[in-house]
Amino acid sequence: MLTRKCDRPGDARRARVAELLLLEKLSIRDIAERLTAEGIAVTKSTVDRDVAELRAGWRSESATAYSEHIEAQLGELKALKDAIRAEALNKKSEKQMLAIDRMVKLLEREAKLLGLDGPVKFKDESEIPDDELIRRVERAKARIDAAGAAGDDGVPSEV
Questions:
Q1: How many domains is the chain built from?
Q2: Is residue 97 included in any domain, yes or no?
């Protein structure tokens, strides 16, 4: 049985509901029937409210744990950045490029954790009017023709 300090009326019942829900994977109806059989007079509606309250509490605890985890990750990233910052800024160091690479990776991870990098947005080319597309194609063709007239066929020459 799940153990938990029970201070409010119904807490012991909710603890038993949580046990039946999580450990025995019972439905709300089955939980109500089981509790009634155990001598705890309860309706399906009461069990439904208990499950909703339990889930709300679990969501809140989960959000707190998630926030604490992100906070810890950011703290670790800061410590790592502090540790390699001097090496990355030292122009005389042989390992400067490696340190810069590590710093960039740390900054990318930090930005990801903070949600700073939004999704990449692409412009839907179908929204460009036909006359604009025709002008773009004509300009590209003119550049290609000009390069060809200048002797640049776009193929690298062999040495």
A1: 1
A2: yes
Q: Distance from CA of residue 87 to its chain's centroid? A: 31
Q: How far is CA 53 from CA 34, 42, 50, 136, in A?
A: 19, 16, 5, 60
pLDDT at 159: 43
Residues 6+ apart with CB under 8 A from 84: 99, 102, 103, 106
Instruction: Write out pLDDT tens, residues 106-148.
Output: 999 999 888 887 776 766 666 777 788 788 888 988 888 887 7
Q: Which domain holds residue 97?
A: 11-114
* Whole-angstrom distance, CA of residue 108 vs CA of residue 116: 9
Q: Does residue 96 form part of some domain?
A: yes
The tens digit of pLDDT for each residue in 13-66 reads 999 999 999 999 999 999 999 999 999 999 999 999 999 999 999 999 988 898
Helices (H), 3-129: 11-22, 28-37, 44-89, 96-114
Q: What token pair was written down for 99?
A: 């340190």
